[in-house]
Predict the 3D structure of the following.
Amino acid sequence: TDFTLTLGTTPTLSYPQYHQGWSGTVTAEGLIIQDRRYPYLYYEAQIPDDFDFDQGFVVAREDTVSFLEEKLAILGLNERESADFITYWAPRIRANEYTFVSFDASSYAQQVTYSFADEAGNQVVPDTFIRVFMTIRAADANEEVTPQVFGPTPTRSGFTAVEWGGTEQ
């Protein structure tokens, strides 16, 4: 399927290069953009940091991987997506003896929007859109936090878009 994807924000870093959007072809193996294959699209952007620290988890360094495996499965990431997420984020979490972790994507989702289009330029809405956004900061072992409660694990059907990312405070 051919696609065009535009963000509601301007990336400060992207791979492949973001030129007012990405256009290419989606295959079972990944994306093809300008005759080159990519397993995923990557970008960094500056967004306001008004994140909710009322709910989340305090994670001990040694529990990082098992914590992430459990929570990412609940949030709907598959094994490959979870592996990519963990290899990127686990070192950042493990940099602290204890880390506050929240998966509240509501503020982020309002600030970073997507527009999907098919090969004819028609707007397309994913049947399933999985957005995992994590906020982390150093914490204390005795810090009291209201545990975050997740909804049901998303069921993938039809056109599925998956985004994962996060921020360090």
Remarks:
- The mean pLDDT is 89.
